[in-house]
UniProtKB/TrEMBL annotation:
Listed name of the protein: Guanidinium exporter
Family: Belongs to the drug/metabolite transporter (DMT) superfamily. Small multidrug resistance (SMR) (TC 2.A.7.1) family. Gdx/SugE subfamily.
Subcellular location: Cell membrane
Pfam families: Multi_Drug_Res
């Protein structure tokens, strides 16, 4: 259950990071409210820490956030998908998988 909570918290991390772009400096009400809600929800990380080591949980949480935000930046905002960028994202995914396997 802790891994599921951690995964959802990671997705909320992605949601608020992407949401920041849509708030336009917190001048748009609906995107701002949704972004703030995602920020608050992403701290569900604390629930996962009841049974997961902090180093692993935090690394996985931020890894999900980094990979998800980078991928959505490419998809939604036309950011470059260079080979080096994709390899770097793959390395982060590899690290997340490795941490999951050893915990």
């Amino acid at each position: 259950m802790a891994w599921s909570i951690l995964f959802v918290a990671g997705l909320l991390e992605v949601a608020w990071a992407i949401g920041l772009k849509y708030t336009e400096g917190f001048t748009k009400l609906v995107p701002s409210v949704l972004t703030l809600a995602a920020m608050a929800g992403s701290v569900m990380l604390g629930l996962a820490l009841k049974s997961l080591p902090i180093g692993t949980a935090y690394a996985v949480w931020t890894g999900i956030g980094a990979v998800g935000t980078a991928a959505l930046g490419i998809i939604l905002f036309g950011e470059p998908a260079t080979a080096l960028r994709l390899v770097s994202i793959g390395l982060i995914v590899g690290g997340i998988v490795g941490l999951k396997l050893v915990t």
